[in-house]
Every structure is written in structure tokens, then in C-alpha cells.
């Protein structure tokens, strides 16, 4: 019988003690009578009486059967019908490769549920930030522990440049559910805008800890944390984060796929600062070769200039051609360096 690694993480809120008690009884009944106790999540470990929620900070099993996985997913989908807020994510992995993943979240006709779903969709529509904020506020008014509504409203406030309000919303979301990576990521971006870079680094680190490598947010947080270390002139820390990011394979539909060019550029800068010039040349070469992502003339010129400087340090003859390429693209520094060589 094949076994798999499975991961579960998330939280479902049931609102009242009455609803919670009903859900708990249904969970117990179905576990015993439908699934014969072949469930991966133990009732005693995941149900939280004090908040009327099912809470799974992170559950990992390295020896799950396909039957146990399906039983658990089906049971979670069943009780999800009675939830008022939250979500659960689940992954099944074989030999390090993702086999299947699920997002389980409420879709009932409850006002809090519908207001949140409406607000979340409106967030994606340009110019609808005000309407999105109203819908998310309504979800919070109907259920004050709606961590995801606070997180999404924080994102709206961030887009509207209401940074203090965004900071409040992200922090409130974290207070309710400290195991969700997204509000840490959002709060980190607010801290960057407020120039609190060390606080941003701490929040990006928490976003990494609260997510897994099969999520895009995990790698986005690593990349941005690396960039902040570079900005703070901490090249060793930047190299650690950016090396991990640049070695990762991203599919074209992953948001991080188009961020690789910029990541390789910053990786090259950090390597240069640490006098790892040969590796720096390779990083800048990859930046130039990649077709996806940022490619404005000024950016492209900067890459040729940086690779030329690194090649010069290594003793490679190609540095003059790189300076010429950069100068032709409008880089004044490259032109000055060429004049000095004459």
C-alpha cells in the first residue's frame, strides 16, 4: 500500500457554541460510523472549545494512505458547510512532488460568508476598492473574529495608501489567527512603506514560517526579505535568501516566475558585495538571459554594467564589451568607465 506525506493547515470558525457543539458531534459521528476512525486529524487536537473553531496550525503526516487522505478531506468538506469564516489548506506529496492540493472554505448563504466572498472578489477589480472595503467591513460586523476579512481589508487599505489602517487590519487578523502567513506578509509590506525595515524582515520571516515551500507566498517572502537585507547592507543574509529563491524551479503560471530576473540581479549584487565575483558574473548573466520580467532599458543597462564590473574583478576580458553594451543603453557610469580605459 502506497503512503504519502500530507500537510494540513488552517482554521474554520463556527461562530456560536451551539453551532460548534453540533459540528463536533457530527465530526465524531461521521468519523466513527462512516470512516471507521481512519482520519488523519485527531478530534482532541484540532477542536478548540474556547473559540468555537477547528484549528490546525500545521499537521504533517509522512505515512498517510490515500484512503486516510480522502476520508479526512471529505470529512473536512462536510463540516465546512457549517463554518462562518476561515479556510483550510491541504497538500498530498509523493517523493517531494505535489500530487494534489485542496482549499476548503465556507460558501454558505450566511451574510458574513457572502459579504467576505464579495469583498474578496471586488479587491481584484481596479477602481472597486471602496466597494470591496464596504463588503469586508460588513463581514467583520456580522462576525467580529473574521481574520480573513481583516486581512483582505488590510490589503485594500494598503492599495489605498491608508498604511495605519492597513497595519491595524493585518495585526488584528494575526491576533485572531496567528498561524496564517498572509497577514504577516501584508504587514511586512506596510512596514516597508513606513521604512521600518527590521520590523518588515521579522514579519517576512514569520510569513515564511507559517507557509510551506509549495506555496507562492513562501518564496515571495524569501525574495523580499533578501532584498531588504541587501538594502540594509547585510549581503550574507541576502545571499542566503536569494540563493534559495534563484535555485527554485517555478512553473510559468506561478507569480514568482516573472520575478526571477529581478531576484537574480539582487543576488548578483549581494555576491559582488561579498567579493564572490565569479558567482556574481553568473547571476548577472542569468539576469540578462532571462526573457521574463523586468526589462526596461535602464534595468538592462544596469545588468551589463554590473556584470562588467564583476568580470573586471575576475579578470575576464569581456568586461569592456559589457561596458559598451551598458553605455549604448544610456548608462553614464559605463561611458565614464570606458573613457578611463582609453
Protein described:
The protein has helices at about 15-35, 45, 65-80, 110-125, 130-140, 145-160, 165-175, 180-195, 195-210, 215-230, 235-245, 260-275, 275-290, 295-315, 320-330, 330-340; strands at about 5-15, 45-50, 55-65, 85-95, 95-105. By secondary structure, the protein is of the alpha+beta class. Among the domains are: about 5-105; about 110-215, Tetratricopeptide repeat domain (Serine Threonine Protein Phosphatase 5, Tetratricopeptide repeat, Alpha Horseshoe). The chain has a 5-stranded antiparallel sheet. Helix 5 (about 130-140) packs antiparallel against helix 6 and helix 9 (about 195-210) runs antiparallel to helix 10. The longest helix has 18 residues, at about 295-315. The protein is elongated, with a radius of gyration of 24 Å.
Shape: elongated
Uncertain segments are: none
CATH topology term of the domain at 109-214: Serine Threonine Protein Phosphatase 5, Tetratricopeptide repeat
Spatial order of the strands forming the largest sheet? 2-3-1-4-5
**Biggest sheet record:** 5 strands, antiparallel
Amino acid at each position: 500500500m502506497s503512503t504519502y506525506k500530507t500537510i494540513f493547515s488552517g482554521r474554520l470558525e463556527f461562530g456560536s457554541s451551539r453551532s460548534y457543539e453540533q459540528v463536533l458531534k457530527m465530526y465524531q459521528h461521521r468519523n466513527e460510523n462512516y470512516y471507521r476512525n481512519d482520519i488523519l486529524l485527531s478530534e482532541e487536537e484540532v477542536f478548540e472549545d474556547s473559540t468555537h473553531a477547528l484549528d490546525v496550525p500545521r499537521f504533517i503526516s509522512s505515512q498517510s494512505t490515500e484512503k486516510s487522505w480522502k476520508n479526512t478531506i471529505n470529512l473536512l468538506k462536510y463540516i465546512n458547510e457549517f463554518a462562518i469564516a476561515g479556510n483550510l489548506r491541504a497538500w498530498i506529496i509523493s517523493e517531494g512532488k505535489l500530487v494534489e492540493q485542496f482549499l476548503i472554505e465556507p460558501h454558505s448563504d450566511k451574510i458574513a460568508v457572502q459579504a467576505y466572498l464579495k469583498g474578496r472578489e471586488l479587491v481584484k477589480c481596479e477602481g472597486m476598492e471602496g466597494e470591496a472595503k464596504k463588503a469586508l467591513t460588513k463581514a467583520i460586523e456580522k462576525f467580529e473574529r473574521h481574520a480573513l476579512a481583516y486581512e483582505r481589508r488590510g490589503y485594500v487599505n494598503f492599495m489605498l495608501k491608508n498604511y495605519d489602517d492597513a497595519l491595524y487590519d493585518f495585526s488584528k487578523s494575526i491576533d485572531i489567527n496567528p498561524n496564517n502567513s498572509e497577514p504577516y506578509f501584508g504587514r511586512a509590506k506596510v512596514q516597508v512603506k513606513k521604512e521600518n525595515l527590521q520590523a518588515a524582515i521579522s514579519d517576512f520571516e514569520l510569513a515564511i514560517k507559517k507557509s510551506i515551500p509549495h506555496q507562492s507566498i513562501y518564496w515571495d517572502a524569501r525574495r523580499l526579505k533578501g532584498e531588504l537585507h541587501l538594502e540594509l547592507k547585510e549581503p550574507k543574509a541576502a545571499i542566503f535568501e536569494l540563493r534559495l529563491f534563484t535555485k527554485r524551479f517555478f512553473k510559468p503560471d506561478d507569480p514568482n516566475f516573472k520575478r526571477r530576473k529581478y531576484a537574480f540581479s539582487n543576488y548578483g549584487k549581494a555576491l559582488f558585495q561579498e567579493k564572490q565575483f565569479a558567482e556574481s558574473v553568473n547571476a548577472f548573466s542569468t539576469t540578462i538571459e532571462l526573457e521574463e520580467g523586468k526589462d526596461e532599458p535602464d534595468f538592462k543597462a544596469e545588468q551589463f554594467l554590473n556584470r562588467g564590473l564583476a568580470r573586471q574583478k575576475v579578470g575576464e576580458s569581456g568586461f569592456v564589451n559589457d561596458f559598451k553594451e551598458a553605455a549604448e543603453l544610456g548608462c553614464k557610469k559605463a561611458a565614464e568607465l570606458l573613457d578611463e580605459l582609453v
